[in-house]
Structures are given as C-alpha cells and as structure tokens.
Design a protein that fits this description.
The strands form 5 sheets. Strands 5-4-7 form a 3-stranded antiparallel beta sheet, covered by helices on one side. The chain has a 3-stranded antiparallel beta sheet with strand order 8-9-10. It has 8 helices and 12 strands.
Length: 309
C-alpha cells in the first residue's frame, strides 16, 4: 500500500491511498444520483398540475391542440409538449369612456364588467388572442358597446331610464364578446358625468318639475277642501230642509189632531155640558150690566142656568 506525503501548515503528513472498493462505491452513488436527477426531470416533464380555477392549453412543438386540460394532474409528452395555464375564474375589467348621446351631449361613463373565459374554448382563445384578451378585445368592445348604447338615448334618459340603458349595453356587449368565447357575467354603469352647463340645465329642470308638482299638490288640496265644504254645506242644507219638513209635518199632524178634537167636542156638545164648562171657568161673581142712566143691573143667575131646551 502506497503512502502519500504532504505538507500542511509547515508540518508533514502521511496520507494512505484510497482503496479500489471505496472508488467503486463512490462511482455507484454518483451514477444513482445522476439517474435520480434524470428521473425527476423526466417525471416533471411528463406530468403537469392544473390549479383550481384554471384550464390548460396543450401545445405540441408550439401548435395548439384541441384537447383542454382540466383541473388536477394531467399527462403530456415530455420535451415535445408544453402547457399554458388560462384563468377561467370571474374577472373584472373596468373602463372610463367619453361618448355622445342621441341629442349630441357629451357624457363620461365608468363601466365595470365581470367576465369569464369559456372553459371549453380556452384553446381557441389562446390561439386567437394569446393572453392579451383584455387589451385586444374586452376593453375595445366595452368602448364600442357603450358608444352604441348612449347613441340611442337622450342625455336625461341616461339618468331617468338607467335600468333600460344598462340592459341595452349588456345585450350589445354580450353579443360582441361571445364571438371571442368570452362570457359576460354582469355589467355596472357606475357613473354618468355631463358637461357643467348641461348638468345645471338638468338641475333647473328637476327643480321646476318639483315646484310644479308641489303646486299641483297644493291645488289638489284646495280643490279637495272646497269639495269637502260643498259636501258639508249640501249636508247642512239637506238637514235643514229635513228639519223644516219634519216641523211642518208635525204641525200639520197637530193641527189635524186639534181640528178632529174640536169637531169631536162640537158633535158631542150638550147644553148641560156647555153650562158645566162655563161654570168650571166662572169666578163666582155675578155679571153686572150698566143701564143707560148709569145704574147697575144684576142679572138673575137662574136665567143662565135655566133649561133653554
């Protein structure tokens, strides 16, 4: 066995040589390590993981395949095939545009659009647009759809018919983006900004309409109160007439009763009953009659009570 001499730090050391067994063992480990690295590289090249909310666009030497890779672990041919991940979650695009209305008023509008790539068409989207679909088709079509929408309405209708305007914009944008396999989930017209002069004109019109409405309500109140007074007066008149008619009718009834009573008494009157009634009212004093010469004459009471029959 050979011994190698060496110096270190001014001192001399003897190092025994490495045996053949150790050399062979080291060589095996090196080979296994290389194989493991190659295996890991191959495994990485064979399998690809597609995260949740994404789809994989499979390409063979740069050519887009018809197959779309779903979420999870997928197989691909190593070294010849590559995968591009495409986001199929709901995404948001926002834009502020200046457009013109039907009556040629300038209006600035902020639009927010929630959209999603069609999961089964991501390969077509990548083939046509790569990953630049927002700048290449979504924002330009938002602008064109908004221009087409505002051109159908007068400026004030953008405010008074907001829901209808939103629906029109939604329909136009859906039709435009569906050509590119992009689904519109929802749209929001968050703001309308008019010119200063037009905004002042709208405010003045709104104030005038409110004042007119208030005046109309006041007039209706006056008309209502007048109608109530007429109804009350009519009711009072009818009540007065009814009371008068009732009093008159009562008097007629009373008069008829009195007449019938008198008639009945007259029909049943006798000389004796007549004298009885007279005596009931007599105060006990004999009547005195004055003669022409001023002398008093006293009547005989028997003449009044005698039988005249």
């Amino acid at each position: 066995m050979r011994i190698f001499n060496t110096e270190f730090g001014g001192r001399r050391y003897d190092i025994p040589p490495v045996g053949n067994t150790v050399k062979r063992f080291t060589g095996v480990i090196t080979i296994l390590a290389v194989i493991a690295v190659i295996g890991l590289v191959v495994a990485t090249s064979v399998f690809v993981r597609v995260p949740s909310g994404y789809r994989g666009v499979l390409m063979t030497f740069g050519k887009v395949e018809d197959k779309v890779l779903q979420e999870g672990l997928n197989y691909k041919v190593p070294f010849s095939q590559t995968v591009v991940l495409m986001n199929v979650q709901i995404q948001k695009a926002e834009s502020t545009e200046s457009t013109a209305t039907k009556d040629l008023q300038e209006v600035s509008t902020t639009v927010a659009v929630n959209y999603r790539l069609n999961p089964i068409k991501v390969n077509e989207i990548y083939k046509d647009l790569r990953e630049d679909y927002v700048s290449r088709v979504i924002k330009p079509n938002i602008e064109e759809s908004l221009k087409a929408t505002t051109a159908e309405y007068r400026a004030e209708e953008l405010v008074t018919k907001r829901a209808v305007v939103k629906s029109t914009f939604d329909d136009i944008l859906v039709e435009r983006l569906s050509v590119f396999n992009i689904d519109v989930i929802s749209v929001s017209l968050t703001d309308f900004q008019f010119s200063t002069s037009f905004a002042a004109a709208i405010e003045a019109k709104v104030i005038a309409e409110q004042e007119a409405l208030q005046a109309k309500n006041t007039l209706e109140q006056i008309r209502y109160e007048a109608q109530q007074q007429i109804i009350q007066a009519e009711a009072a008149k009818n009540a007065t007439i009814a009371r008068a008619e009732g009093d008159a009718f009562a008097q007629i009834i009373q008069a008829n009763a009195t007449a019938k009573s008198i008639k009945l008494i007259t029909e049943q009157m006798t000389a004796e009953y007549s004298q009885y009634l007279w005596l009931q009212q007599w105060d006990g004093k004999l009547p005195v009659v004055y003669s022409g010469d001023g002398q008093e004459l006293i009547l005989d009471i028997s003449q009044l009570t005698s039988d005249t029959g």
